[in-house]
Automatic annotation (TrEMBL):
Keywords, alphabetical: Methyltransferase, Restriction system, S-adenosyl-L-methionine, Transferase
Pfam families xrefs: DNA_methylase (PF00145)
Protein name per the record: Cytosine-specific methyltransferase
EC id: 2.1.1.37
Family: Belongs to the class I-like SAM-binding methyltransferase superfamily. C5-methyltransferase family.
Active site: C132
Molecular function GO terms recorded: DNA (cytosine-5-)-methyltransferase activity; DNA binding
């Protein structure tokens, strides 16, 4: 058992709503019996395992080891783990053999060392969840230029750990790569990080699949979505694992754990336990399966925060449907107009809200379904699918943080099994993202008669005037009117020909749109810098959708970019133009047909954008591919009676290849 510090309760000085400040217990964990202390013994350990037929994996940014545990349950042996968190690596080292180290993966020397160890140890699977920070437009442009031209800047690796991850893959070339992250990566207008990673992995010869995964579909009892990327070497195809038949509810997961009051601590500190009876559901049986006979009636880490008197009164009034704003004023400590959901009692018969690292600082989002307290460490671990034998180093706050940051082991297990199945029966992926993008781009460039001729406009103003005036106009109207208005290729030109422009708009009954365009033109004449990527969305009268389309369709020249945005670009850097991923109903229809997945019925901002990104890529063809996708949605890939045989993607499209299996 781990060593421990005794609990040290002390009275809170505030009298009005007094609550005891309870510290600890402080868990200290000894290394796993097969833990290796240095790289030499690690390589010997890995060689021994490999001779026995074991499949080896590495887990970077490993945290407490949730993904490692899942991969080991799937059939892998995780022999190398790296993180830059002392308590998380202590936890991982206790539960997993091999080499677990507290190293900074932002250090170029460490990157090289880790890649060498992966290669020399014969590690098959590299897994991990690199943190992905947002980027300035200039930073995105610079990185894209370096990727597309085979350049890499070591200075970026310290700040951008996802680049460290890519560099390790490039140096080590493992057979399989598994990356997980939050779906917020998809919400960036350009989806820059994800598109860059897919592009570079494909250049290395990997077939890449990415998906926003709802973890409850794999038995995890919470609403938790993760972005998963799987890349297999030699362009080997990957197939996503099937879903489990039933959801696991909150009480399915924790209903067998004994009742405790807020702030309760067992005798014996970290070695202490709460009395336990028996598991009642199949999930609970799984959580107890590794418990040894001597601990059959013990549950460890079943501790939580004390509860203030006013919070206790609030908790007593709450059901799982109660909002914080509905509570009486006398039990509120926060503004209910800002913190409408500050407190949340979990639904016993539903899924838990996402367990995040925030639970380490504030447990009010995680109030027990029946007991008037926040969750215990063990309950949070259960909701993340950690078994009851899994202990966490440090005080309860550190345990909560490690649990919230973890990948649910049950998700890791399902993904590991699917990767093994793909590697054991390899099938070549039929095409890569860059193949799709190239086909779309070449078709678009060669197309003579375009539905939206302004998408190939000379400048952003032409895109604005064409999309605002002629959106949803009949094709014959577009062919007649566009050549007339296209000659007014700047805001000042249209203002200088205002009466002629109004007359053209009257011909097609769109005088109100003409008024809007003239208002936009006046603003841009007074504020020419607002044609820049970031400022265009702030132009009065211009919708976000049209602004994004203008940014996509008409990149600024380097000179215009400098004048419009007032910033200097580094030498040899491309202009700071965005390539936003646009998601419209028509584009989603094409993406859904192409992939065979109902992305129109899912979350368009995650599943939809992922499906579109898979078709346009991030190569030099990306912008024309995106324009081609828009053109395709409004010409050949019609809602009814699509002209599949004329489509540039018909040999790759699921709807054309397997029409009986794809809904139109």
């Amino acid at each position: 058992m781990p060593a421990h510090d005794e609990t040290n309760p002390r009275p809170h000085r505030k009298k009005t709503y007094g609550v005891k400040l309870v510290r600890g217990p402080f868990v200290r964990l000894v290394p796993h019996p097969e833990s290796t202390p240095d790289t030499a013994s690690f390589l010997s350990y890995a060689a021994t395992l490999r001779r026995s037929g074991a499949r080896l994996a590495a887990d970077l940014f490993c945290g407490a080891g949730g993904l490692s545990l899942g991969l080991e349950d799937s059939g892998y042996k995780v022999v190398l783990a790296v993180d830059h968190d002392r308590e998380a690596t202590e936890t991982h080292r206790h539960h997993h053999g091999g080499l677990t180290v507290d190293w900074d993966l932002g250090d170029p020397a460490i990157i090289q060392q880790v890649a060498d160890l992966i290669r020399m140890a014969g590690i098959e699977l590299l897994a991990g969840g690199p943190p992905c920070q947002p980027f300035s437009k200039a930073g995105r442009s610079k990185i894209r230029y370096q990727v597309r031209h085979g350049l890499r800047d070591a200075r970026d690796r310290r700040r951008n750990l996802w680049q460290s991850y890519l560099e390790i893959i490039r140096l080590a070339r493992p057979a399989a790569v598994l990356m997980e992250n939050v779906p917020d990566m998809v919400l960036d207008r350009e989806m820059f990080i994800l598109r860059t990673m897919v592009h570079e992995l494909e250049l290395m010869g990997y077939a890449v699949e990415e998906r926003a995964v709802d973890t409850y579909r794999y038995g995890v009892p919470q609403w938790r979505q993760r972005l998963i990327l799987v890349a297999l070497r030699n362009r080997t195809a990957f197939h996503w694992p099937g879903e489990v038949p039933e959801r696991t509810t909150v009480m399915n997961a924790i209903g067998d754990l004994p009742s405790v009051e807020g702030g309760w601590r067992p005798e014996g500190g970290a070695d202490g336990w709460a009395d336990y009876e028996r598991p009642l559901t199949s999930f609970q049986q799984r959580m107890r399966a590794r418990v040894n006979l001597a601990d059959r009636h013990k549950v460890f880490d079943h501790v939580t925060r004390p509860v203030r008197e006013d919070d206790l009164a609030a908790f007593e009034l709450m059901s799982s449907n109660t909002r914080y704003s509905e509570l009486p004023a006398e039990v509120k400590r926060y503004r209910d107009d800002i913190f409408d959901d500050k407190y949340k009692r979990l639904d016993a018969d539903g899924l838990s809200r996402t367990i995040t690292a925030h639970i380490a600082k504030d447990g009010y989002w995680y109030i027990h379904p029946y007991q008037n307290r926040t969750l215990t460490v063990r309950e949070a671990a259960r909701l993340q699918t950690f078994p009851d034998t899994y202990r966490f180093a440090g005080p309860p706050s550190a345990a909560f943080r490690q649990i919230g940051n973890a990948v649910p082991p049950m998700l890791g297990e399902e993904l590991g099994r699917a990767i093994i199945a793909a590697l054991d029966a390899p099938v070549k992926a039929p095409f890569a993202t860059q193949d799709v993008a190239r086909a779309l781009a070449h078709w678009y460039v060669a197309r003579q008669r375009r539905t939206f001729p302004w998408l190939a406009g000379v400048n952003r103003w032409q895109v604005i005037i064409g999309e605002t005036l002629l959106d949803r106009a009949h094709a014959n109207t577009v062919r007649l009117i566009w050549p007339l208005v296209a000659r007014w290729d700047g805001p000042s030109k249209i203002l200088g020909n205002e009466e002629q422009f109004r007359e053209v708009a009257r011909w097609i009954g769109r005088e109100d749109r003409a008024d809007r365009i003239l208002g936009i033109a006046r603003h841009l004449v007074d504020n020419p810098g607002n044609l820049g990527d970031d400022r265009l969305r702030d132009v009065p009268g211009l919708t976000d959708a049209i602004a994004a389309l203008a940014v996509l369709a008409a990149p600024l020249s380097a000179e215009t970019s400098l004048a419009a945005e007032g910033e200097e670009l580094p030498d040899a850097e491309a202009p700071g133009n965005e390539e936003p991923v646009l998601v419209t109903k028509g584009v989603l229809r094409v993406a859904g047909r192409f992939s065979g997945e109902p992305v129109e019925d899912k979350n368009r901002m995650t599943d939809g954008r992922l499906a579109v990104a898979r078709m346009i890529g991030d190569d030099d063809d990306a912008r024309d591919a995106h324009r081609g996708l828009i053109e395709l949605a409004n010409s050949l890939c019609r809602p009814e009676g699509p002209a599949c045989m004329d489509c540039p993607l018909h040999k790759m499209c699921r709807a054309a290849v397997e029409p009986a299996n794809v809904l139109f």
